[in-house]
Design brief:
The complex is a heterodimer of chains A (320) and B (382).
Chain A: H1 7-23, H2 26-35, H3 41-50, H4 68-80, H5 87-97, H6 104-108, E1 114-116, E2 124-125, E3 132-134, E4 138-141, E5 144-147, E6 157-161, E7 164-167, H7 177-206, E8 208-209, E9 212-213, H8 218-246, H9 252-278, H10 289-299, H11 306-319
Parallel strand pairs in A: 1-3
Antiparallel strand pairs in A: 2-6, 3-4, 4-7, 5-6, 8-9
Helix pairs in contact in A: 1-3, 1-4, 4-7, 4-8, 5-7, 7-8, 7-9, 7-10, 8-9, 9-10, 9-11
Chain B: H1 7-23, H2 35-50, H3 69-81, H4 90-103, H5 106-117, E1 123-126, E2 142-146, E3 149-160, E4 167-173, E5 184-190, E6 196-201, E7 210-221, E8 225-226, H6 232-247, H7 251-268, H8 274-302, H9 311-333, H10 345-356, H11 364-375
Classes of the chains: A alpha+beta (320), B alpha+beta (382).
The structure holds flavin-adenine dinucleotide.
């Protein structure tokens, strides 16, 4: 057994981190929140060039030919930067699922932007920037969308109506779209949690009360350590889920559910602890922390929440 | 022990219920963290005052009903039951008011209490500073004596509702040479004086629910000092215990929230989800437990006991319970809870606000330190 990523996988993830540290700073994310476009077009082009958007598309279809093991660290990096817009939906599901369709070239080069409508929820995230919505068995285009006010400005929610449908498959590696998204968002949530913890740890080193950095108080140390504990113990299950999904393992669905349940709860815990460590400033619009907190409150519920996924794990290990 | 209401208490309850049923606005007011909502909440307070219900526990001469703590709790139960608006002058009526009654002069009582009860003057609490949050005794804003006036300089932050409030009650350093807790003075100050700048701060939900207040050579009469000069810390602490312990968050707030939670569960809950079922039952027990604990505490106060450091237990309990109630609600709502509007709106708003509970009125970490040091008498740490 070898439970680690290859040098190339790590290098690619570092390259993405580097790109995001320049093109997806909290200032960029805020811009999207405020102008309500839900999307960073420049970043989108760079992600296309880098091959992130076509990572899971077979090489024969113009993609990078990667597996979910190749992609899982990228999902995590995207989460670290709280990347707005339908990057996960497009990259993890739409592009690979439609790799053999007429849509493939435009999805690969990013000129057509796709999002998803999955059965685990009534709403379509990112519909305002998407040209195409992939449902279970159909592609919808030319729809109109109505904003229903999601909590996360980088993941606006809509209901959609009208448009025309054409038959398509939303399966990726033989898995339903909602499960692939559960895996992708589990990894993304881990990245979100890591950033919240880093931001709060830095704050706890700088902020002084009673003449000492607040990070020197045991109560603060324990809040931070407990948050880290949950995140660290969600990682291996998430990476294992990527492996199971990529290798056609019979336990793939169970493993994805385990990952999404643990990552959702870890992200929620991290949001609570890191906000608490910030004190009053953590409750403001100005503090960048909210960009990740609200992302975690959105994604912990999307694509099945912890309860939904825990029950699937339970059904598998207790009844199976 | 007799846990039944007396005839007098029951009569008071039904009087309150009748009045509230006839007067509570039929649709919810906009948030008091908006200009429009603030004005409407002030109007509502005026109506409460006219009916004699704005400050039931105050003496009659200042606009109250001389209700004892038990009756006050009964009023609160009826208030929350009726779905009446939030109390925009909370900081005045429940925090500053009792402090003025305890340490204020006759002139101060006559001047400030009636306009507080009617909310003609809405008060903001200006204690925290950018560098003095948990460590409040390190306050640096100062008041310098010039004849009959204080000259105020410095910066306060996080003052709730200060964007539209009329006056603030602040703590200022008046003796720079004294040791930290000494040398502070409690001063009342209008917010429209020359030299004052109020900068709204947007909260997590985007509304400007609190503000920074900058003081630049602001002059107020020395007569605006509450309590003795350089004894501001003791004045501030005189009522902080009652605030943390009882008045800031009366039990009815949570027992009503749990009623709504149960309704939510009946509407949307998955009956096969036993963990959720247990969680709702637990929320009910917590709210009920807090109610019982509070009745026990106020009975003790009526019998002459005072609340000390154990008030910190209450503050932790209600703030964590509030978060829990909302967490469960959002869990019941599932994917709907990703929205700020629709059936989830009130719960999502409430969730965001509940997260500030473990921070304001002294963080829960500080409360735990207080309990450990003063109630449990553990050796002092850092
Ligand atoms: C919604 C809201 C409304 C508010 N309204 C008002 C108001 O009307 N008027 C007003 O004056 N203030 C108000 N405040 C301010 C509030 O009282 C302060 O935010 C609070 O006291 C914490 O101070 P701080 O924000 O500076 O955080 P800090 O003191 O910097 O605390 C940061 C973190 O360090 C921890 N910490 C600090 N010291 C210790 C220690 N010794 N041991 C262990 N942990 C420690 C804290 O618990 C916290 O987790 C409000 C705050 C909020 C969020």
């Amino acid at each position: 057994m070898k439970f680690s990523f290859t040098h190339d996988q790590r290098l690619f993830a570092e390259g993405l981190r580097d790109l995001l540290s320049k093109q997806c700073t909290p200032t960029h994310v805020r811009e999207v929140w405020e102008n309500q476009t839900g999307h960073l077009p420049d970043l989108w082009s760079r992600l296309t060039e880098m091959g992130v958007l076509s990572m899971l598309v077979p090489e024969s279809q113009g993609g990078m030919g990667g597996t979910l093991i190749d992609a899982v660290l990228l999902f995590q990096e995207l989460g670290r930067a709280a990347v707005p817009g339908p990057v996960l939906e497009h990259m993890a599901v739409a592009a690979p699922a439609l790799a053999h369709s007429q849509w493939a070239p435009a999805l690969n080069d990013g000129t057509t932007i796709a999002t998803l409508w999955v059965d685990t929820g009534p709403y379509v995230a990112h519909a305002q920037v998407a040209n195409l919505v992939l449902r279970n068995e159909a592609v919808i285009t030319g729809f109109s969308s109505t904003d229903v006010h999601g909590i996360d400005g980088g993941r606006q929610l809509f209901t959609i109506s009208g448009g025309s449908e054409s038959a398509a498959s939303a399966q990726v590696f033989g898995l339903p779209a909602s499960d692939v998204m559960a895996l992708a968002s589990a990894a993304y949530l881990i990245g979100v949690s890591e950033s919240m913890i880093e931001v709060a740890a830095e704050y706890a080193r700088q902020r002084e009360q009673f003449g000492k950095p607040i990070g020197s108080f045991q109560a603060v140390k324990h809040l931070m350590s407990d948050a880290l504990l949950k995140v660290e113990f969600a990682k291996a299950p998430t990476y294992r889920a990527a492996w199971s999904a990529s290798t056609g393992s019979p336990t793939a669905l169970r493993d994805i559910s385990m990952a999404k349940a643990l990552a959702s709860e870890a992200a929620y815990r991290a949001s609570r602890s890191t906000m608490q460590v910030h004190g009053g400033i953590g409750y403001t619009w100005e503090a960048d922390l909210q960009l990740w907190m609200k992302k975690s409150w959105a994604l912990m519920r999307a694509y099945g929440d912890a309860t939904y996924h825990r029950r699937r794990v339970g059904a598998s290990v207790l009844h199976g | 022990m007799d846990l039944n209401e007396t005839a007098q208490e029951s009569a008071f309850r039904s009087e309150a219920r009748t009045w509230l049923e006839a007067n509570v606005p039929t649709s919810a007011l906009p948030s008091f963290d908006t200009a429009e909502g603030f004005a409407l909440h002030r109007k509502w307070e005026q109506k409460l005052y006219d009916g004699g219900w704005s400050a039931v526990s105050w003496p009659v001469e200042y606009g109250g009903r001389d209700a004892d703590y038990i009756m006050w709790l009964i009023f609160e139960e009826e208030y929350y039951r009726s779905g009446a608006p939030g109390r925009v002058n909370q900081n005045g009526i429940f925090l500053l008011g009792p402090t003025i009654m305890e340490v204020g002069t006759q002139e101060q009582k006559a001047k400030f209490l009636p306009s507080m009860a009617s909310s003609e003057i809405v008060w903001a609490q200006a204690w925290s500073e950018p560098n003095a949050g948990s460590d409040m005794a390190s306050i640096r804003s100062k008041a310098t004596r010039d004849g009959d006036e204080w000259v105020l300089n410095g910066q306060k932050i996080w003052a709730s509702r200060a964007v539209w409030a009329d006056w603030c009650f602040g703590i200022f350093r008046t003796d720079p040479t004294a040791e930290r807790h000494r040398g502070l003075t409690f001063i009342l100050c209008p917010l429209d004086l020359p030299g004052i700048t109020v900068r709204p701060i947007a909260q997590l939900d985007g509304d400007t629910g609190f503000a920074e207040i900058f003081f630049d050579d602001v002059r107020v009469p020395v007569a605006n000092t509450l309590g003795e000069e350089n004894k501001g810390w003791a004045v501030a602490m005189a009522t902080a215990g009652f605030e943390r312990g009882v008045s800031l968050r009366s039990p009815a707030r949570f027992t009503e929230a749990v009623k709504r939670l149960i309704h939510l569960w009946k509407t949307y809950g998955d009956p096969t989800d036993t963990a959720l079922f247990d969680a709702v039952a637990d929320a009910w027990m917590q709210a009920e437990g807090y109610r019982l604990h509070t009745y026990q505490t106020v009975t003790g106060m009526l019998e002459g006991r005072t609340i000390g450091a154990e008030a910190s237990l209450n503050k932790i309990f209600w703030s964590e319970m509030d978060v829990r109630i909302h967490e469960i609600a959002l869990q019941i709502l599932g994917p709907e809870a990703e929205r700020m509007e629709g059936p989830s709106q009130r719960w999502v708003d409430g969730f965001l606000f509940s997260l500030s509970g473990p921070i304001y009125a002294g963080t829960n970490e500080i409360q735990r330190n207080i309990i450990a040091d003063r109630v449990l008498q553990l050796p002092k740490g850092m």
